[in-house]
Amino acid sequence: MRSKPSTAEVSAAPGSQTLLRGLAILEAVAGGARDLAALSAALGTTRSTTHRLAAALVEQRYLTFAPREGYALGPKLVELGFRAQQEAPVTRVARPHLERLSAECGDTIHLGVLEGDWALYLDKLPGRRRIEISSRVGERQPVWSTGLGKALILDLDEARWRSFHRLGAARGGHSPDLETWLARMRTYAAQGIAYDREENEPEVRCVAGPIRDASGAIVAAFSVTSTVQYMDEARMEALAGTVRTVAGAISRDLGWAG
What we know:
By secondary structure, the protein is an alpha+beta fold. It has helices at 7-11, 14-30, 36-43, 47-59, 75-87, 89-105, 147-152, 158-170, 178-191, 233-253; strands at residues 63-66, 70-73, 108-115, 118-125, 140-142, 194-197, 204-212, 218-227. It contains ten helices and eight strands. The strands form two sheets. Strands 5-4-3-8-7-6 form a six-stranded antiparallel β-sheet. A two-stranded antiparallel ribbon has the order 1-2. The protein is elongated, with a radius of gyration of 21 Å. Residues 1-11 have low confidence and may be disordered.
């Protein structure tokens, strides 16, 4: 017996359905699907329909296809992603400030926003240290364990903080126990700064600050990241004032009255 179509399926015009299926293919490939069988299973469409949609996406460079390797995200998405990143107001406004900070401190700098329960990286400025921080633009990182993530939620109430900690505990993160974590979050909120003391990744630490818009709401955050070798407790405390100053300057450029 055929299942009843959803409201979205009933109301969607044929062209809209094709568009949504094409987008679903991109999401499936991004999630690791590589062949027609996996794509058909993800979409719930026949192999012929799936092949037709995937071929159109390959032709338009949204996907690539290689024998024995299968489908992969294509160069057109890289172009669009780069344009979207550059056109995001907070990225454009923050960039010159972060470039000056990068030149001054020499560490890796990330800029990100809250996307659901995750911190999404919008920009990254590699450091000049003899280390490589394994992160990339477009990557999602845990809110509960990264300094940037915690800076993004400084204004939320404790009920929301607790929910983020539960997510981290369920995923087996390195965060401390709930009461210790909440005590730290209260301190961070009072100071307007957040830290990652190897909670997200061993040997990696960071200092992060929230960025506010004209309404005063936190709309983004950035972090200064390095390894323990270059980021002991004394340096983290020394960087706190600088990060707070830069966060304030970016926020004022976004219209925050301070």
